[in-house]
Amino acid sequence: MARNRNDGANRRESSVAHVLSAAVDRLRRNPSLLVPFAIAGFVLAVADALRRRDPIPTLEREIPWENGLSIDLEYAGYPTGVAQTATPLESLVGLHPEYLAWGLTLYLLPLVAVVFAGVVTMARAMDRDVRLATVGSVFGFVIVFDLVQRGLGSIDALQGMGLWGLPLLMLYLAVTVRLFAVPGLLVAGRSPKRALLESVRRTRGHGWTVFGVILVVGLAGWALASLPGGTVATTALLAPVHAVAIVVLLEHSSVDN
Q1: Is the CA virtual torsion 85, 90, 95, 97 positive or negative?
Q2: Which residue spans within the chain are E strands per DSSP?
Q3: Separation CA 108–CA 189 (nearest Å)
Q4: What band does 12 get if pLDDT is binned at 50, 70 and 90?
Q5: Reduced to 3 states, what is the DSSP secondary structure of residue 17?
Q6: Which of 46, 99, 115, 182 has its CA 20 to 30 A from that of 8?
Q7: Is residue 11 packed enough to be buried (19+ CB in 10 Å), middle (13-18) or exposed (0-12)?
Q8: Residue 9: CB partners within 8 Å, gap ≥ 6?
Q9: Residue 171 to residues 126, 178, 218: CA-CA distances in angstroms?
């Protein structure tokens, strides 16, 4: 009976409300954890401003209520803000070297900013030192995740599948749930391969909790990004919650799940 009660307590502790409230409480008790992503938010906002003035073609985030209400799940797979602009990588093809270098800088600089902010935030939440190798590992994960999302988003057939696309969407969400803990495990010193495998194990039995966290973060990101100053707001306020939520989940999960 004692074991059953403990199992129930563990399940309650890893609920969506507990993970998010614990993350917010830790940020409230240690406001310095907000600083890295506040700086990153400024970098993302500057990148938005530069892209709007850039001769390289730029995608602008649509206003959700401009052509009828459109609700999106703004979840990138790693702690970050929601930028208002993006540079399509296909627009960099065939550019002169100086324009190519500039375009790649505008693409990579925001990623570097959020990666560094995420590593510092999670490392401090874990009481760990920040290591350069860790930053490199997380950056590699973020680049791969970003390129995969861009690739899926560029396939017109996927965008027009309607209900037929639900199985693919569920598969994508299932993979995203299993990879939720990867950034935190990389910060904890795991190798990329071990982080991937361990993330799958640690999220086993916590799948609905992780899905709920993703849903809350994604919908909150959509709502905040739709307001003036959304890039800074999502990066400075929401990304730290996401980062610390990963740490909280790792603390309440077990490799033996």
Answers
A1: positive
A2: 59-60, 85-86
A3: 24
A4: very low
A5: helix
A6: 182
A7: middle
A8: none
A9: 31, 11, 17
Question: Cα(221)–Cα(245) distance, rounded to whole angstroms?
Answer: 15
* DSSP classification of residue 84: S
CA-to-CA distance for 36 and 117, rounded, in angstroms? 5
As to burial, measured by CB atoms within 10 angstroms (0-12 exposed, 13-18 middle, 19+ buried), residue 218 is: buried
Output the pLDDT for position 66.
Answer: 60
Neighbour count for residue 167 (Cβ, 10 Å): 10
In 3D space, the residue among 249, 250, 241 whose CA is nearest the CA of residue 81 turns out to be: 241
pTM tops 0.85, yes or no: yes
Nearest to residue 199, comparing CAs of 151, 141, 114? 141
> What does the H/E/C string look like for 185-200?
HHHCCCCHHHHHHHHH
Measured CA to CA, the distance from residue 68 to residue 242 in angstroms comes to 29
The per-residue pLDDT for 153 is 67
3-state secondary structure of 15: coil
pLDDT band at 6; cut points 50, 70, 90: very low
From CA 151, how far away is CA 57, in angstroms rounded? 17
- Are 43 and 110 in contact by the 8 Å Cβ rule? The answer is yes
Whether 4 has a pLDDT exceeding 50, the answer reads no
Q: Contact at 8 Å (CB) between 137 and 118? A: no
Round to whole Å and give the CA distance between 66 and 54: 24
